[in-house]
């Protein structure tokens, strides 16, 4: 079994959408869903990160741009359409090591012509605007005329599968005959962002060019060039399609002129040179991100799929974009950015690709204006980050959705899921703790910490009778319960956010007093505010059980109907129990980790016993109806000794999309589950955590069948390689490192190799 490949051996057009998601190729700048050129079934998707538009849709959404993949083969007058042909063989394969998607098939047309097609496609990691495909075409039982059509389709819409929400976000501006080559420019409706796709074909066999004739055409929103060739039985021809994708969102010059120049350069470099450079970059990325699991092939492939897709979804070159909940892999959640990024994906980037982590945090800094506006328009102060954010940081959560019966349902998350503010603060502190990036914390980080704390100051309510601060009417991570008071996750992290703001403002005051004063005057803060913050920090209400061991998820939670989960499906996941006449929100059932989530984020704040009691209590009541949940329970489970469930939850997390276990992979990647998968391996099985003194700890436990686990992380500018086998742990570090292994302290000096028996 090749442990770097995801393969599909059978064609079924019903699965096209799912595989478009799984086979998406992206480089952080853009993503192209893994659509098949030779089928019209599915949902093609071409997205450039940061290009959003609202126009007729309910809220601003990522724009599905013109499709540049268009490629048809005609044998005389018959189009090779795999939904119409008989398929003699079919295979698709994503090579994750190289970042290349392969497709091959033998198709027999209605007139009995048999043709073999082998293609490969890549979206360059070397030059982000380049992508290309290569087709090797062989007639198997005929000689004759073959026409090859290269086209760009501007008739694309968003939500193509949903007639009530289908929206076209752009107008086709220009078609170009680049002779050879074609181009099509579109312009978005609201912000007039232009995007250009430019493609051209080169066709060769052993005697050189195979094209005899070319015809350029414009068909409304579609531009095409067709080449006539003559093909001979058993002889292969190779056609290379070069593509350039650019937008004036990031390029302030004439798009077509720049595009044609770039295409020329690309062709001059050649397909082979570009793909080689692309592969070298992927090799380098794998060197940073890979987790090697020996002895468990299913786990190995699964974890790599998640690492590959995460690394594909971001790059360090743009600080005005972040990763959407569905990556660059589909239109689910409208391309919006959630807490998924900071809490679930960011740790992966912090520890493997810190430059990318910084760019992701810079997106929050660069959208502070929107966050301040959100606070202002909802009656608060400081910065209120949007539960769902797009290009400007304004709140873009839809207010209404539709249930299965077609009834309108009010969506409250955008109004009440305030914890996103502390989640972002959490991401900043985690990043700084692991990287020591002073420049970032001084210039951007502290500002976010202070302005989010200022928001909490305006949001909390003082309860005079109880002499405590409360936060009423919120939604915590568990979205089954709306309008709840004193959700512990929200309260605890608001308190923590304020504590960190106080700590870093004191730190900045000493570190860079001018900067400190400038910030205070910019944000309108003074000692009076800081005194209030101290009070909030000390008196924030955290509901608990009477013995103090079980944290009450929110005030009144223990009084709700305690419905038992007693049935599990074939994957050992909970089946809905009978609510016995209650509404879901009237039960103690949870959608996803909530109290458990808090204990994973702040592991040092809770004793082992408290973690164990809470894990046991809440695990039995969690339905895992969010893909964010299983990985988190695996981490907390391992921390409290539940090894049996940990492996189950880990596998569930890493196979979220590969097995489509949430049933909606069609609409994009579960990027948070991918981040959770990394966390489950590293924070869970390796037991990596940073203790109160800021020292790195590992406490590995490996499932029986795992022969070994190895990986690299960045820790304060050193690269640390850790390899765990059944009988020993080996550690290398490029810089001096203090590390606790099973609570024993080790000092590793520069480039020395540490071996510890297990
Ligand atoms: C989850 C949220 C998550 C969102 C986007 C929801 O179903 O409950 O926690 O942020 O999906 O992934």
Automatic annotation (TrEMBL):
Q: Which UniProt keywords apply?
A: Glycosyltransferase, Hydrolase, Transferase
Instruction: Please name the Pfam families in this protein's record.
Output: Glyco_hydro_65C, Glyco_hydro_65m, Glyco_hydro_65N
What sections of the sequence does the record tag as coiled-coil? none
| Residue ranges occupied by any Glycoside hydrolase family 65 C-terminal domain in the UniProt entry | 688-746
Q: Name one GO molecular function term.
A: hydrolase activity
Q: Which residues form the Glycoside hydrolase family 65 N-terminal domain?
A: 10-247
Q: Where is the Glycoside hydrolase family 65 central catalytic domain?
A: 304-679
Q: Does the keyword Glycosyltransferase apply?
A: yes
Q: Which InterPro entries match?
A: Glyco_hydro_65_C, Glyco_hydro_65_M, Glyco_hydro_65_N, Malt_Pase/Glycosyl_Hdrlase
Q: Which family does it belong to?
A: Belongs to the glycosyl hydrolase 65 family.
Q: Report what the protein is called.
A: Glycoside hydrolase family 65 protein
- From which source organism is this entry? Clostridium frigoris
């Amino acid at each position: 079994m090749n442990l770097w490949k995801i393969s599909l051996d059978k064609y079924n057009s019903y699965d096209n959408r799912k595989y478009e998601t799984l086979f998406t190729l992206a480089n952080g700048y853009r993503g192209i869903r893994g659509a098949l050129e030779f089928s019209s079934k599915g949902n093609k998707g071409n997205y450039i990160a940061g290009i959003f538009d609202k126009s007729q849709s309910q809220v601003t959404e990522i724009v599905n741009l013109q499709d540049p993949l268009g490629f048809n083969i005609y044998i005389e007058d018959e189009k090779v359409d795999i939904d119409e042909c008989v398929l003699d063989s079919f295979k698709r394969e994503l090579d994750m090591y190289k970042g290349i998607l392969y497709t091959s098939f033998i198709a027999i047309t209605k007139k009995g012509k048999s043709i073999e097609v082998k293609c490969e496609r890549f979206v360059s990691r070397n030059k982000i605007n380049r992508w290309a495909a290569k087709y090797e075409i062989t007639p198997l039982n005929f000689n004759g005329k073959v026409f090859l059509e290269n086209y760009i389709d501007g008739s694309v819409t968003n939500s193509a599968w949903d007639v009530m929400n289908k929206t076209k976000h752009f107008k086709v501006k220009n078609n170009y005959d680049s002779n050879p080559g074609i181009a099509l420019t579109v312009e978005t409706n609201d912000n007039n962002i232009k995007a250009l796709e430019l493609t051209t074909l080169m066709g060769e066999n052993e005697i050189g060019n195979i094209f005899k004739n070319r015809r350029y055409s414009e068909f409304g929103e579609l531009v095409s060039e067709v080449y006539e060739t003559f093909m001979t039985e058993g002889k292969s021809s190779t056609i290379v399609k070069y593509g350039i994708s650019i937008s004036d969102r990031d390029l302030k010059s004439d798009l077509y002129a720049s595009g044609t120049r770039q295409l020329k350069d690309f062709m001059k470099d050649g397909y082979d040179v570009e793909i080689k450079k692309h592969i070298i970059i992927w090799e380098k990325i794998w060197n940073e991100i890979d987790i090697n699991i020996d002895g468990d092939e299913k786990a190995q492939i699964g974890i790599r799929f998640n690492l590959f897709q995460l690394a594909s979804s971001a790059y360090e070159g743009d600080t005005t974009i972040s990763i959407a909940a569905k990556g660059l892999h589909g239109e689910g959640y409208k391309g919006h950015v959630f807490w998924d990024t900071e809490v679930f994906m960011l740790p992966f980037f912090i520890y493997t690709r810190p430059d990318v982590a910084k760019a992701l945090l810079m997106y929050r800094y660069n959208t502070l204006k929107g966050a301040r506006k959100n606070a202002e328009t909802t009656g608060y102060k400081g910065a209120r980050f949007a539960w769902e954010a797009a290009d400007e940081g304004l709140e873009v959560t839809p207010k209404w959705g539709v249930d299965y019966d077609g009834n309108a349902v009010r969506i409250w998350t955008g109004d009440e899921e305030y914890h996103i503010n502390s989640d972002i603060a959490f991401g900043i502190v985690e990043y700084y703790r692991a990287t020591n990036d002073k420049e970032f914390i001084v210039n951007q980080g502290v500002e976010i910490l202070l302005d989010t704390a200022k928001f909490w100051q305006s949001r909390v309510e003082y309860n005079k009778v109880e002499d405590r601060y409360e936060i009423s009417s919120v939604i915590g991570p568990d979205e089954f319960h709306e309008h709840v008071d004193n959700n512990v996750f929200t309260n605890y992290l608001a308190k923590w956010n304020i504590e960190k703001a106080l700590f870093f403002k004191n730190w900045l005051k000493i570190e860079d007093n001018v900067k400190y004063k400038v910030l205070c005057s910019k944000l309108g803060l003074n000692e009076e505010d800081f005194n209030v913050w101290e009070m909030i920090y000390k008196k924030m209400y955290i509901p608990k059980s009477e013995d103090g061991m079980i944290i009450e998820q929110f005030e009144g939670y223990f009084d709700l109907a305690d419905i038992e989960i007693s049935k599990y499906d074939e994957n050992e996941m909970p089946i809905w129990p009978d609510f016995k006449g209650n509404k879901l929100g009237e039960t103690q059932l949870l959608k996803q980790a909530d109290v458990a989530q808090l204990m994973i984020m702040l592991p040092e704040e809770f004793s082992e016993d408290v973690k164990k009691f809470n894990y046991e209590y809440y695990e039995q009541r969690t339905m895992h109806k969010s893909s964010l949940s299983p990985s988190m329970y695996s981490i907390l489970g391992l921390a409290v000794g539940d090894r049996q469930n940990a492996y189950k939850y880990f596998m569930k997390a890493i196979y979220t999309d590969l097995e489509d276990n949430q049933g909606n992979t069609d609409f994009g990647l579960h990027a948070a589950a991918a981040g959770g998968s990394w966390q489950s391996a590293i924070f869970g099985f390796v037991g990596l955590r940073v203790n109160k003194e800021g020292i790195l700890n590992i406490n590995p436990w490996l499932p029986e069948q795992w022969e070994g686990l190895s990986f690299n992380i960045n820790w304060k500018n050193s690269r640390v390689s850790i390899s765990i086998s059944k009988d020993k742990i080996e550690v290398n570090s490029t810089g001096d490192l203090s590390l606790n292994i099973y609570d024993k302290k080790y000092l590793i000096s520069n480039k020395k190799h540490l071996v510890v028996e297990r």
